[in-house]
């Protein structure tokens, strides 16, 4: 006679039985001592990340994570190689710059609508 009910067998199987968890992710999870779905269930989160939508970034602390709707005002291309690419933007109350240190034109074009 088995020691546990058959319905619980999947909890002690491999993590790769779930779609989205392949060998590479399973290897990374095993480094965290997560080797089965049961281990994953008992691994509780240690922090919470909240994103709040605001009208402006004005007055927010540097380490606050916010979502803000912006308007692209100007692209400032740097003619020197290995220099950051800057985009001047504005929200409801203030203007600021988005700075890309490892500029990849295709990447920025995905996120900036009026490229």
Number of domains: 2
Distance between the termini: 67 Å
The strands making up the biggest β-sheet line up spatially as 3-4-5
> Which residues sit in consecutive blocks of at least 5 with pLDDT less than 50?
none
What's the arrangement of secondary structure elements?
Blueprint: H1 23-31, H2 37-41, E1 52-54, E2 66-68, E3 71-76, E4 85-90, E5 95-100, H3 105-111
Parallel strand pairs: 1-2
Antiparallel strand pairs: 3-4, 4-5
Question: How would you characterize this protein structure?
Answer:
With 115 residues, the protein is of the alpha+beta class. It folds into two domains: 6-41, no CATH class; 52-111, no CATH class. 18% of the residues lie in helices and 21% in strands. It has three helices and five strands. The protein has helices at 23-31, 37-41, 105-111, and strands at 52-54, 66-68, 71-76, 85-90, 95-100. It has a three-stranded antiparallel sheet, with no helix packed on it. The longest helix has 9 residues, at 23-31. The radius of gyration is 23 Å and the shape is elongated. The model has no long low-confidence stretch (mean pLDDT 84).
